Amino acid sequence: MATVERSIDSDINLYDELQIAILSKEDLNNVSISQLRKQYRQMALKYHPDKSTAPNAQEKFLKIKLAFDVLSDSDSRKRYNQWFQKRHFGDEHRRLQIKRLKQREAQQKSLDIVDPSELQRIQEYGQHLRKLLHFKQPYGDWKNVHFESRDTRHTLRESCTLRIALKQNATTRNKQTMKQLFKDANFPVVDMFFSSRNVETDDEHVLYTVMHDLAATTDLLNNWTEKDTLKSYISGIRPYVNVEYFHFEGTVKLDSSIMDKVGIDPQVIV
Fold first, then answer.
1. DSSP label of 142
2. What domain range is 204 assigned to?
């Protein structure tokens, strides 16, 4: 029985090895021992290492012998047929899942080398998820995350990025529609992307817009409430970079080593 278990574990179609077509459950019971012997003789003669010049003749011959050894033994054949029937004519959903898995595996093997930039984005997103886990924050819809290509040439990208809270609806979930709304309101944006933590069941979701320069950023931040086309979709806008980081309490004296390097007189920043 060891040979039949090895055949099952290796997912080998023994009937294919003997070139016997099995298209239904009934075909399994209709294969006679004389048919097995006939096919075995033909296939063994064709792929015998002493007569065949095929590069895989040795391997093919061993599989043919394995197929005959298993299928010519009544107990082994019964065990194999039980597995074969479930594997090829069993649950439709399970067979479909197995087929899709094999297709994905085949596609994965044929893929070219992964783009380093794509790998970097995945790594950065993984770091982001670990931070959320550490601070016990909700992940959002992390299963359907989409990495968008962004223009990294913007020298003041973070300073010119605004976090926009949008009311949840079909319009605000459409990136192209939102771009057109901002353009119609005379707030053209360089880039925009949705937060990976957005969840459609929430009342609001977040969109980040990257403006051309600081003037355009300030314009949108201060004047969006005057645009009726935007007011109905937006709940609030704030800078992506927390401005509190740039507020200092009291006075701070520059370190002498810094003053020496920049070559300026001692002064105090308020």
1. G
2. 155-244
User: How many distinct structural domains can be found in the chain?
Assistant: 2
Tell me which residue has tokens 């019971």. Answer: 29
Q: Which of 86, 113, 129 is the last residue of a domain?
A: 86
**What count of residues does the chain have?**
270
Residue 92 to residue 88: CA distance in whole angstroms:
9
CA dihedral 153, 156, 162, 163 (to 10 degrees): 70
Calpha distance 244→252 (Å, rounded): 16
- Cβ-based neighbour number of residue 105 at 10 Å: 10
As a whole number of angstroms, the distance between CA 55 and CA 49 comes to 9
- Per-residue model confidence as pLDDT tens digits over 39-89: 999 999 988 888 888 888 888 999 999 999 999 999 999 999 988 888 877
SS3 167: strand
Hey, how many other C-beta atoms are within 10 angstroms of the C-beta on 213?
A: 14
